[in-house]
Amino acid sequence: MPLYDARGKRNRALVIGVSRYQDPRLPDLDAVFANPDELGRVLCAPATDLFLPQEVTPLRPDTPEELTAALRTAAREARGLLLVHFSGHGRVRRDGSDLHLLVGSSRVAQDERRVASHEAVSWAKDVLPRLEDSRADRVVVVLECCFAGNADDSFRTHEKPVSLLMAAQPNRRIFSGTEPGGGTLFTRAVLDILEHGIEGKEFVTFEDLAGELRRRLAGHTTPQGGAWVPRASKQNTVDDVVVSFANRGPRPRRTPPVVRARRWWRTRLRPRLRLLAVGAATLALVVGAVLFAGQLRSSGPCPPAQELRLLTAPEAEPTLRAAALAYEMSDLNAEPVPGEEHVPDGCRRTQITVYSAAKDQVAQGFAAADRWQGEAEGTEQAPSGTGGQATEPLYRPGPQPDLWLPESTVDYLQVREDLAADAPATLHRIGPVAYTPLVVGVPAERGLPDVEQAGSSWHEILDDAADRKLRLLRPSPVLSGVGLMHTIGLYLADDGMPVAEDSGAPAPEVAERAESRLRAPGSQYAGSAELLCSLRPGAAASGAVPRATAAPLVTEKSLADANLGHAVGNCPALATVPEKDDRYEAYYPSGVPGLDHPLIRVTWKGAADAERREAAAERFADWLRRPGGGQKVITQAGYRGVNAVGRAAPPPTGSPLRDSRAGVLPDAGVEPYTAGQPRVAQVLAAYDSAHRPGQLLFLLDTSTSMADGGRIAEAADAVGRALEVLGPKDTYGLWTYPRPGTAARDRERPVERVPAGSTDPAAGRTVLERLQRGDGGLVDQGAWMREALTAALDRLRDGPAGRTKAVVLVLDEDDGAGKRSAAAREALSDALAAHPRVPVVVLAAGKGGCDAAPVRHIVTDSGGNCVAGGPGAADTLAGLVASFGTGGQEAGR
After folding, report:
1. Cis peptide before 836 (omega within 30 of 0)
2. Rounded to an integer, what distance in angstroms lies between the CA atom of residue 127 and that of residue 578?
3. Are 736 and 753 in contact, with CB atoms under 8 Å apart?
4. Are 438 and 626 spatial neighbours (Cβ–Cβ below 8 Å)?
5. d(Cα 674, Cα 425) in Å, to the nearest integer?
6. Is the pLDDT of residue 298 over 70?
7. Can you spell out the DSSP letters for 648-717?
8. What pLDDT, in 10s, does the model give residues 753-800?
9. SS3 per residue for 601-629
10. pLDDT tens column, 413-445
């Protein structure tokens, strides 16, 4: 990749840090105060070798004018590299758009529909135009503020090559207002990388910096409890920019003689010729202005493109991101859109933000559509009433969408059924844009010799799978459209006949028989990709079902991805295709409807640009279904396309489904779902009847080591997510350990924050919110997990019969290891082995993850499961909890 080296050129760095705010609703950020000086020091260090001291401007602005004036000056003076770094508060509109950078005099807007631009600096209207006007060869911007990732939504420059590094993903807060001084976490990591380099790298490029930050922050969480993942983006450039020449080698890199000569010229000889140089430059600018004036008048700069927000399921997000980018760069997106004001020819009309959420989160968002817009401007409390627990809709599920692409028509029917009559959102079903059949993945070395890969009924597949001692694993019907549609197939297409409108309610014995074959403790995941990720060779062992006997109920597309070594869930792509023994064969149960991925246009009451937004959405929807447009991207990703009449089309040549190693049957048919919403309700009722209520006990480590890297926030978020999926008949308890005190008997006794047998999730959420705020009482001593877990298992086993029981253990490590008696270790072993066996689901937040010896021992002996901390952990844990709380697994199977 070409590299841009700015050494010796006229560079400028504007380092902005805002730590003091006049508005009492904006907490001061003590840690930010040191950022400008520290970053200025590192940028001028000999090892960094890019900037001279006079080229770096630290700034702590009180007014928007101070910031914009300094930015204008830096942009005007830079000829080589322009670096802009901002750290401070950020705010967006309630729909997640229009990022504003807040300065000392900024005020939180009183009008919930806007951000007061005269009190803050608009990223789109104030910053980007000044960057576009810069005379620098390259521009690098680093944003460290809440909602920094939202800057990517309006990141558009007409010609200027700009690289943008955002401290976190969209809709994430990164400052809580309680950080200590001495530099922020993110900037401290940036400083270390720029000053000391990266192991194995001769210098640090922009992309190196972004990648190293993602690696270093992988163990940290945002104040919301989400994974801290920096985001990078570029405009009008494919090359990379060197941002530091520091390296960790034994000898520092020497500055080339030509660079030293340039600097000598600029700092010593050039000032003596300043008058002549200024005169010549002025003349050149005047001549240039005359020559280009006519062109500038005729074309003009491009205004920000119209943003459309597309909400989808996690598995489809990567494909739709690629499709959105292809559309944005297409010629069609440069044509006029009805309802738009004058836009110069050649400008892009639409930009599309793609984001994803689990099925239940989307349903909760639409059910509470009247207050979907959340807390983007600083509202801290959720409204009371139905759905009041969704306190951060910008975090889950995200900004209110203009387009929604669920996994199936069934998901759409459920949401439409629960949408209030007076809701401000209206759903318009456009039609399917892709298909993918549902399949059963059978380990290639085992197979099902007595059934055909396509055309066999579920009844036949279940019988042969039982004979082969395979354990069928299903994504959660609560969190996943894939899991729900598989359940519909199991219940209504048991005999191999297609699900029809007059199929009738599922027979209770059919539902019970199907669920009995799926009763592998903790077998349900948040989706196909997460399930297959957990089964990938080398992944953290799930514990409940050995990979060799696991048969996942997934989609054809996700199974092909796993077989070909593509990225699935949180598992990155493999360097090579897995060996045959590590691949699966796809079996297609007869009569089971596939996923049709219908595109839904969402209109919102009161939208000022409704005509233009509707026209833009319709145009994108039409492009998605064009063979030469979106269909090309969709089929290249492994989905079936859509033909002229809206049915599934055979995969084209070049589709990954045509690869013999994919393990699928690309010409197998895809059944549509035609039975309507009543059958969905009947299937869910049968699902509830086939399961016993759950009794869960959450056991949470609250020792001070959980504060490291934001683990307690991540853990509290994951447990809160799990509470969302408990059914109305399920009960739970929330215990923490260790108990404050110095005596051994205190350390060994957990604290009952919410008594076992409780039914109100609000009590648990209150405890979790206190832990996230830091006032929940972390205990400054080791967490003796074995004693606390023994007590939890004994309590559940002594509880009422007739319920599915499980312990959910959250920890970073067993701090009491080596300090306890042999009797304590034996007591836990006895409790794990006792009958009826109580499975333990572990969320392992420590560095050892699921591979830590105590975790492996607990999962194996209890027949439970493990989730490693990190991105996606909350949804994965919720899926496992749903399998106990509403999945009716029999303890001890």
Report:
1. yes
2. 47
3. yes
4. no
5. 25
6. no
7. EEPPPTT-GGGSGGG-S-TT---BPP-SHHHHHHHHHHHHHHTSPPEEEEEEEE-BGGGGGGGHHHHHHH
8. 999 999 999 999 999 988 876 666 778 777 678 889 999 999 998 888
9. EEEECCCCCHHHHHHHHHHHHHHHCCCCC
10. 999 998 988 899 999 999 999 999 999 999 988
Q: Is a pLDDT exceeding 90 seen at residue 59?
A: yes
Can you spell out the DSSP letters for 286-348? HHHHHHHHHHHHHH-PPPPPEEEEEEE-GGGHHHHHHHHHHHHTSGGGGS--TT-----TT--
Residues whose CB is less than 8 angstroms from the CB of residue 210 and which lie 6 or more positions away in sequence, other chains included? 165, 230, 232
Identify the bridge partners of residue 438 per DSSP, sorted by sequence position.
555
Is-contact 555 588, C-beta < 8 A?
A: no
Distances (CA, A) of 878 to 37, 162, 699: 44, 40, 15
- CA dist 81 and 134 (Å) reads 10
Mean local confidence (pLDDT), 826-844: 91
Those residues whose C-beta lies under 8 Å from the C-beta of residue 108, and which sit 6 or more positions away, are 23, 25, 26, 91, 377, 378
Kindly report the length of the chain: 893
Q: What Å distances lie between residue 227 and 221, 478, 735, CA to CA?
A: 5, 23, 24
Backbone CA torsion sign across 435, 441, 445, 448: negative
For residue 56, the cross-strand partners are 13
Give the pLDDT confidence of 596-605 residue by residue, as tens digits.
Answer: 999 999 999 8
Give the phi and the psi of residue 690 in degrees, each rounded to 5: -80, 0
Q: Which of 167, 397, 268, 486 is nearest to 875 (CA)?
A: 397
777 close to 783: Cβ distance less than 8 angstroms: no
Structure tokens at 215: 């690696």
Tell me the C-alpha distance between 859 and 295, whole Å.
70
pLDDT over threshold 50, residue 57 = yes
Query: By three-state DSSP, how is residue 557 classified?
Result: helix
Q: Which two tokens stand for residue 199?
A: 């192991």
Distance, CA of 436 to CA of 637 (rounded, Å): 11
Mean pLDDT to the nearest integer, 717-721: 91
At how many degrees (to 10) do helices 409-418 and 359-367 cross? 30
Write a three-state SS string for 130-180: HHHCCCCCEEEEEEECCCHHHHHHHCCCCCCCEEEEECCCCCCCCCCCCCC
Name 737's bridge partners.
Answer: 701
Distance from C-alpha of 507 to C-alpha of 512, rounded to nearest angstrom: 9
Q: Under 8 Å CB-to-CB from 865, ≥6 apart: which residues?
A: 521, 522, 542, 543, 544, 839, 841, 842, 859, 880
Give the strand order in the sheet containing 138-144. Answer: 56-59, 12-17, 81-87, 138-144, 162-166, 231-235
Compute the distance between CA of residue 366 and CA of residue 400 in angstroms, rounded to an integer: 9
Q: Which of 49-53, 215-219, 689-693, 775-779 has the lowest mean pLDDT?
A: 775-779
CB–CB of 266/10 below 8 Å? yes
H or E, element range at 809? strand 804-811
Distances (CA, A) of 484 to 197, 595, 674: 49, 11, 15
Residue 100 has pLDDT above 90, yes or no: yes
User: First CA to last CA across the chain, in angstroms?
Assistant: 55
b/e map of 639-673 (b: 16 or more CB within 10 Å)?
A: bbbbeeeeebbbbbeebbbebeebbbbbebbbbbb
Give the pairing of strands 641-642 and 598-604. Answer: unpaired
- Is the pLDDT at 837 greater than 60? The verdict is yes
- pLDDT grade for 395, boundaries at 50, 70 and 90: low
The whole-model pTM stands at 0.69
SS3 annotation, 823-840: HHHHHHHHHHHCCCCCCE
Is there a contact between 56 and 43 (Cβ–Cβ < 8 Å)?
Answer: yes
With a pLDDT cut of 90, the percent of the chain lying above it is: 44
Banded model confidence at residue 885, pLDDT cuts 50, 70, 90: low
